[in-house]
Amino acid sequence: MNKKYTTAIFDLDGTITDSGPGIMNSIRYALRKHGISEPSEEVLRTFIGPPLKEQFQEVFHLSEEEGAAMVSAYREYYGEKGLFENRVYEGVPEMLEHLKRSGVKIVMATSKPEEYAKRIAGHFGFDKYFDFIGGACMNGERTDKYEVIEYVLASCGFSGDDRSCAVMIGDRRHDIAGAKKAKLESIGVLYGYGSREELEEAGADRIAASPEEVYRNFALK
Length: 221
Hints:
The protein is of the alpha/beta class. About 45% of the residues lie in helices and about 15% in strands.
């Protein structure tokens, strides 16, 4: 018997939408602007999911100030074009509809700025399924996935005693690690940008290969 989760906390990039093209094009723009050589697509794909500034610093060996400058350049492109160079994964609307009709509370916890997440949700029409959309601040605060999860839980009125009914759903190790720190169970999805190995090593409680398999993890009628 599957566990009775009553709240689904979704990541955005790589879980609801395939945001890779817009993110990678925005990174390319930032690199060109700062005269940095473009790496392989494999390296560019590592930017999908983690907090941007820290990823810029780690991959290109930049200072915190330089990382922040790269994020500013990135947003010049992303805010105009990149966020719409994106698509909703096949099967995701049906998954969200199924959960919504079954009475599951659906919320979002993303390391993407909340402003962008809401614009994307509205543009693609899946905002109607979400009771709350939470993300990072535009000033660079609240980018860590654990911090975003705690912000979302607090905004939705969760206490420390009722987290067993909520589950974090994401495609990268940061989602799983954030969930564990917040004392939540987690479902790792394989149709996004993380591998089974990455998700299992991070400690995902369950693995889903498709959106359909995600809602099979809920004890629904």
